[in-house]
Amino acid sequence: MRDDAQGLIVMAHLRQLELRGQSPDTVACRRRALARMARALPVPLLEASPADLLAWRAGLSVGPGTVVGYVSHAREFYRWAVRSGLIESSPAERLPVPRVSRRLPRPIGEDALTAAVLAAPPRVRPWLVLAGWAGLRAKEIAYLRRECLLETQRSPVLIVAAEATKGHAERVVPLSGFVIRELVIAGLPRSGWVFRRRDGQPGPNRPWIVSQLSNAYLHDLGIADTLHSLRHRFGTQAYARRRDLRMVQELLGHAHPGTTAGYAAYDKADAADVVEQLPVPRHLRAVDDI
Predict the structure, then answer these.
(1) Is the dihedral of CA 134, 100, 41, 81 positive or negative?
(2) CA–CA separation, 10 and 16 (whole Å)
(3) Which domain holds residue 157?
(4) What CATH number should be reported for the domain holding residue 17?
(5) Is 100 inside a domain boundary?
(6) 235 with 132: CB under 8 angstroms?
(7) pTM for the predicted model, two decimal places
(8) Same domain, yes or no, for 143 and 214?
(9) Is residue 54 located within the same domain as residue 160?
(10) Burial of 205 (0-12, 13-18, 19+ CB in 10 A)
């Protein structure tokens, strides 16, 4: 298969993703993943055998989560090729993937967060506020539109639009007075993207710009946390106030409560107190307690 023919096939696949309503970021990730795989394989994509893909998988020198992502892109591409009648069976179905362990919550500390917000430049400060006090992802900050900020309602809310979020499930996040004041001070446009690009190009900022600039600023302050740590902080603080994991799941926009558990850290002092108060049968008590 010539390169131009393979390029047309990949373009048709990406077009199918667009027609299914996948976000531009998802389409771009699939394009990059397929390009990397095509460069690594000894044959064109549609001529690859299970052995070719297994050798490609074995040569991936990235973390477990990234491996899972690459293999997922490969499987979806070949499943589409089967449905489209381009190949008879997918060579990617039996590719092994590592088990990705559940990560513990990593919320930024309150002192570090306060210091970061107080010293933040005007462009970055509202991003930190939206991550730390509304739980937004970098993508949701980048794609936030003025029409989705309903700050004048009796109960002010922010609507995270389907095309602006991971998973394409809209959600509503209540807005605190603090967040509203910060956004007003930062300057809200009449319409369109809340945070405009600064390179003269149309459209919103790319999510990686929001993430990269925020992380670089935090690291310059000597703070090892990332912008996503502020989202962890939001989940942790929200859970601490109501102990309602289902509510926090909705606020963060997670499909599964198990994911939310990786964001909402429990209070270690409370846990220690609970463990200390567990009843012990009298005949098992230490000698000193008798």
Answers:
(1) negative
(2) 10
(3) 110-270
(4) 1.10.150
(5) no
(6) no
(7) 0.68
(8) yes
(9) no
(10) buried
Distance, in Å, from the CA atom of 52 to the CA atom of 43, rounded to the nearest integer, reads: 8
Burial of 286 (0-12, 13-18, 19+ CB in 10 A): exposed
Q: Which two tokens stand for residue 285?
A: 């008590």
User: Are residues 154 and 236 both part of a single domain?
Assistant: yes
Are 42 and 172 in a shared domain? no
Contact (CB, 8 A) for 122 and 196? no
pLDDT tens for the 290 residues of the chain, in order: 567 888 999 999 999 999 988 877 788 889 999 999 999 999 999 999 999 999 999 999 988 888 999 999 999 999 999 999 999 999 999 999 988 666 667 889 999 999 999 999 999 999 999 999 999 999 999 999 999 999 998 889 999 888 888 767 789 898 999 999 999 999 999 999 999 999 888 889 999 999 999 999 999 999 999 999 999 999 888 888 888 888 888 888 877 777 777 766 666 666 566 566 666 666 555 545 54
Q: Answer whether residue 151 is part of any domain.
A: yes
Q: How many CA atoms lie within 13 A of 123 on its CB side?
A: 13
Spatial distance between the Cα atoms of 265 and 252, rounded to a whole number of angstroms: 14
